[in-house]
Amino acid sequence: MFRNLILSVVLLTNAFAQNAALTSSGFKGARELKTQSAFAHKVALETSGFDSAYKLSLPKPVQDKNFYLLSLFQRTREVRRLLSQNKALKQLADDKVVSLKKAAGCDNVACVDQLIRFDGPTIEAVAAQLQTLANRPEFKLLAKKDLRASGVFIKYSDQSDAQMLVSAWKDAATGMNRILNVYCLGHDPRYKDIDKVSFDVTTQDYRNRLKARINDINLSRDALFFEPTLNFALALLEINRRDEAGRYEPLEQGENKACLQHLKNIKWSDYPYSFILVLGSGPQDSSRLSPLGVKRADVAAQLFLQHKAPLIILSGGHVHPMQTPYCEAIEMKKYVMEKYKIPETKFLVDPHARHTTTNFRNGARLAFRYRIPADLTALVTSSEDHIASSTREEFRIRCLNELGYFPVEFIKRISPVAAEFKPSVASLFFDANDPLDP
To answer: For 435, which DSSP code?
Structure first.
C-alpha cells in the first residue's frame, strides 16, 4: 500500500490555548522536530525513486499535468513506435478514430460519451498489452528515466515497472472518463459550485459546440490508441474554459522566476523554518482579494519580517466565485509586495490550489521541485478556524479520501493562526481526479 511507502506520516493535533499570542515563544520546537524526523524523511525520499534534478516537461500543461504518462507516450519516439506497431493497440486506435467521427453525428451527449469513453474491458485489454510491452528495453528505460525519476507516479513506487505502467494507464483512462462524466454528460463533480460544467449539456447549442470541436480534431495517420479520447477530453475542458491547471505555466519562467534565482543565496540555517505557506481565501463576489485573504497575507508578512523563514509561498487558484478572473495567490502576492515592500525574490506562488488539501499538497510540491532542503520544517498560516480544522484528525481523513494520501508528514498547531508541518514526498503524485488542479 502507498501509505506503507511514506514513513512517519504523523498528525499532531495538540493546540496551544486559544489566547496564545503570535510571539517568538510560540515558535519553539522547530529545530527539535527537524532533528527527530530527518532520518525517516530521508529514507522515504531515498526509497521513492524521485530525482530532485528531474525537469518536468510541460509544453502542454493542461494535458501534461493531467496525463503525464500519455504525454510521455507521445514524445518518446521509441515508445510511440512500439505502441503504433502493436496490433491490438493499432486496431483500438483505428476503432476510436471511427468512433470519434461518428460522435459528430450524435443527437445527444450520451451518444457522444458512449462512443468516445474507454469502457472497463477496453481499459483492461490495454493494460494487458502494456504489461507485455513493459518488458521491452524502451519501456524499461522510460520507467527508469521518467516514470520513477519524475515523482509523478510516486504512488506506485513500490510496484514493479510493469505494474507502475499499468497503474498509471488506468489512472489516465479513469481521468479521461471523469472529464467526460462532468463536461460531456454534465454530472456533478465533487465540488460542483466551483468545478461544474459551464453550460446546459441538454441544449442543442452545447451539442453544436461539441460537434464543432470534434470536427476540428486533427489526428495523424498513426494516431495512438488513446489520442481520440484524449483530444476530445481536452476539448471539453477548453469549451468550458477550464484551463486552470495550465495557467501561469511554466511558473519557473514567470511568477516564480525571481525567487528561484534567489534560492541559491539563502543560508537555511539562519531561519527556524524553510518557508511560510499561506492558505488562500477567495472572495464571494467580484473583488480581487477577500478581507480574509488580506488578513492571512498580513500575518504571513509579519512572520516573514520576524525572520521566521526566508520565503513565503502563497497558495490559491482561480476558485471563488466560479470562473473568477482573479487568482488568490497572485492577488495576495501583489498586496504583500505593495504594502510591506517585500521584494519579489522572497515569494513563490502556487496559483492552482482549489482546496485546503491541495494548498498543502502544492506547497509541498514546490518545495521538492525547487529543491528546498527536505529535512527542514515549514510554517503554515491562515485564519484561526482554518488552522484549527487543518490540525484535526478530520483533515487527515479528508486528505486520504480526496487525495489518497496525507501530503505532509506531520502538522502541529503552535499558535491560533499558525502550525508547523513537514512536506511529504507523496505530494508529487499527479492526480487526474481533479482535472483543474491535478
So the answer is: T
